[in-house]
Design goal:
With 259 residues, this protein is of the alpha/beta class. It is built from 7 helices and 15 strands. Strand 14 and strand 15 (245-248) form a beta hairpin. The longest helix is centred in the middle third of the chain and has 17 residues, at 107-123.
């Protein structure tokens, strides 16, 4: 009797896990996603518990990264990297026994991966080899060491719009504004709420394009059209193509001294 097709998904972003799971449900209805992990350590623990036949791993996760997790489980499952850092996934894929898809996930690319996985599961069990182990070791060292690339800045924002997940290019975003639980994303196509905090966004966005101007506001500097200073060392910010007036607090007024 052929074992059931089972999978584990590991990604530190809940929306990305949901997006991948929904894609897989459409492309491979027989696949059972038996567990989801938020980081590499949890992925290894859940793998030992559930022994899935396929593991989808994000490369960059807090703590134990996806490459290190793959070293622990690659000989016992088919491993697929789902990542924005394509250079690592490609280098591992070239060694064999692995596959990869790049964020944001394209349905056709994932469909190719599903076909490859189905073929492998039907024909053989994963056994790995020394070349693969060596490749993963070098990649893990690169991620930890000086040869690792600088963290890539956010290229898009994932937001729930109705029943779907929308990937919004950051260059289209005018501003972010937070309240107690959510952050509003305002872009050329509309508005949506996300769960990322202003602090998280400030660390991940390109500082050449985005700046925090208030404890609750980040703006796209390329969209600033006017800054109106107030007598109490604060200011109001106007953006091209928007009617909102955004606050600039005293702590961030220095950003606009030359304007």
């Amino acid at each position: 009797m052929t074992p059931a097709a089972t999978a584990l998904i590991a990604d530190d972003e809940p929306l990305l896990r949901t997006n991948l799971r929904e894609h897989l449900a459409r492309l491979w209805p027989e696949l059972q996603v038996v567990a989801e992990a938020r980081n590499g350590r949890e992925a290894v623990e859940l793998f030992e518990l559930h022994a899935p036949r396929v593991v989808f791993l994000d490369v960059h996760m807090p703590g134990v990264n996806g490459i290190e997790a793959a070293r622990s489980i690659a000989r016992r499952a088919q491993v697929v990297f789902v990542t924005a850092y394509e250079q690592y996934a490609v280098r591992a894929f070239e060694q064999g026994a692995l596959d990869y898809v790049v964020k944001p996930i394209e349905a056709q690319r994932l469909a190719d991966t599903v076909q490859r996985l189905q073929s492998r599961l039907a024909s053989t069990l994963p056994d790995g080899d020394a070349a693969l182990d060596d490749a993963l070791s070098k990649l893990a060292d690169a991620l930890r060491g000086r040869t690792a690339p600088r963290p890539q800045r956010l290229q898009w924002i994932k937001a729930s719009v109705g029943t779907s997940v929308r990937l919004i290019p950051v260059e289209q975003i005018a501003f972010f504004k937070s309240d107690e639980k959510y952050t509003l994303v305002a872009w050329d196509g509309g508005e949506a709420l996300i769960r990322k905090t202003i602090r998280e966004l400030a660390d991940e966005l390109d500082p050449e394009r985005f700046a925090q101007v208030h404890r609750s506001v980040i703006v796209n500097l390329h969209r600033v059209s006017q800054v109106t200073r107030s007598v109490n060392e604060t200011a109001d910010l106007h953006l091209t193509g928007r009617t909102e007036v955004l606050p600039v607090s005293r702590s961030f007024l220095h950003l606009f001294r030359q304007m």
